[in-house]
Amino acid sequence: MTPKRLTIAAIGCGSRTFIYFELAAKQPELYEIVAAADHSPARLAKARALSQNPAFREFHDDVAILAEPKLADLMIIATQDAFHFGHASAALRKGYDLLLEKPISTNLRDVLALEKLARDLGRRVTVCHVLRYTPFYRRVKSIIASGALGEIVSVEATEGVEPWHQGHSFVRGHWSVVEKATPMIIAKSCHDMDILSWLVDSPCTALGSFGGIQHFRPEKAPAGAPKRCTDGCPVGDTCLYNAHRYLGDRKNWLEIIFDRAKTATDAEITDWLRTSPWGRCVYHCDNTAVDHQTVNLNFASGATGTFTMTAFSEGRDLAIFGTKGRLFAGERVKKTAGCDLVVEVFVTGKLERVTIDHEKDGWHGGGDAGLIRTLHAEMNKPRAEDMESSLQKSVESHVMGFAAEESRRTGRTMDLPEFRRAHGG
After folding, report:
1. Under 8 Å between Cβ of 168 and 278
2. Are 22 and 50 a contacting pair, CB within 8 Å?
3. Mean pLDDT by 10-residue block, N- to C-terminus, for the chain (425 residues)?
4. CATH numbers and ranges of domains, the chain
5. For residues 31 and 51, what is the distance between their CA atoms, to the nearest angstrom?
6. Which of 171, 189, 315, 410 has the maximum number of C-beta atoms within 10 A of its C-beta?
7. Residue 49 and residue 128 in contact, taking contact as beta carbons nearer than 8 Å
8. Is residue 384 helix, strand or coil?
């Protein structure tokens, strides 16, 4: 029997929606893209082209699309963080199930309120914790489930944001000012909180965290560095963060923030950089997002974990220590052992080296493609709580992240059940 197609609309037409539209359009037997809302006519035109649907409808904002009768089964919410709660709440009340970009919201009280609203209305919400859908993490999960490592005792995870990415997104960009967006541990690393919760498969009961801004500060600026890269910097030729790289080897990043990146001349891009936030010197910004943070975690099972986010590495690394064996995986293993992960079984001393076939569709190591490939089945599961990254499951990572930020700011160890209750959970 041919499955009923899942119809899709979107509020917010940025890079995330474009990736999901492109992937969904490759599976026309499962999905039909019917509408989108965005302030930018150029982005709506791109969304229309990706939809491959002559009847695609365009709306200039969220109010306009939500004023219509329900247009689709599923609404993608891919606006800026501060708008997620309002847009998601309104779409749920209109009758839509959701594919919701992380973070769920910029504060825990709203995260928990949205969870309650979805439950009360009987709606399904999949949060875009795309790492769960990557071949890499699915292989790690299957090894744990096989029992090869025994009982998990401790876990170590690291996320290297990469210096340019830190400068682009968290010093110059949309997530640079925590007070206007989301703490770094939520904005960037709620993926990692989610993965740790998923792999350990036990609630986090307590945590403590440390971190701050060590490098992207005015006093770290090279001598004579102006407020903008376009003002003639004496070290521009050797600076890792020179904004003129948007015209060269970092032009793919420009496409995320400048709609005409592919067609504009170098002179037009340079003029844009003269006034754009992305033309500023990274040492002379208003950034409040941390460039490094460490979290120590305690789980109900008795397992412990550590997580480190740093701007000054690239990619993710993972070590899992169990009673029967241990697993090492990620970028460092790839560079030193030439594979994606290594498993050692204690009783035999056997080492297994595993290489994973990484998908190329979208970013996140194939996670975007994996999410869209399974989304139709996920939305048709009998119970919302059985979904792979349901709202109910994804709330756990947000409780961990917001508690970590509270610990970092106050120096206190956080009791997570108590912290959740204090925020209405």
Report:
1. yes
2. yes
3. 89 94 96 97 96 97 97 97 96 98 94 96 94 93 97 98 97 94 92 95 97 97 96 95 96 90 93 97 97 98 98 96 97 92 93 81 74 93 85 94 97 97 91
4. 6-130 (3.40.50.720), 131-216+288-361+390-422 (3.30.360.10), 218-279 (no CATH)
5. 10
6. 171
7. no
8. helix
Tokens at 242, concatenated: 């020179």
| Predicted TM-score of the model (pTM) | 0.92
Spatial distance between the Cα atoms of 398 and 214, rounded to a whole number of angstroms: 25
**How large is the C-alpha radius of gyration of the chain?**
22
DSSP helix/strand/coil, 382: coil
Per-residue tokens: 103: 């973070």
Give the span between the Cα atoms of 79 and 286, in whole angstroms: 22
In 276-357, which residue ranges form alpha helices assigned H by DSSP?
331-337
Under a CB-based contact definition with an 8 Å cutoff, are residues 227 and 284 in contact?
Answer: yes
Q: How far apart, in whole angstroms, are the C-alpha atoms of residue 43 and residue 331?
A: 35
Bridge-based pairing state of the strands 325-330 and 314-322: antiparallel
CA 384 to chain centre: 21
Do 368 and 20 touch, CB atoms closer than 8 A? yes
CB 206 within 8 A of CB 298: yes
Tokens of 202: 């036990």
Would you state the structure tokens that stand for residue 32, as one six-digit string?
């039909």
Q: Which tokens sit at 65?
A: 């699309």
Question: How would you class 182 by CB atoms within 10 Å of its CB: exposed for 0-12, middle for 13-18, buried for 19 or more?
Answer: buried
Q: Which of 253, 281, 86, 81 is nearest to 183 (CA)?
A: 81
Which residue is it, tokens 């930020």? 405
CA-to-CA separations, 133 to 185, 265, 269, in angstroms, rounded: 21, 38, 36
How far out from the chain centre does Cα 187 lie?
A: 7
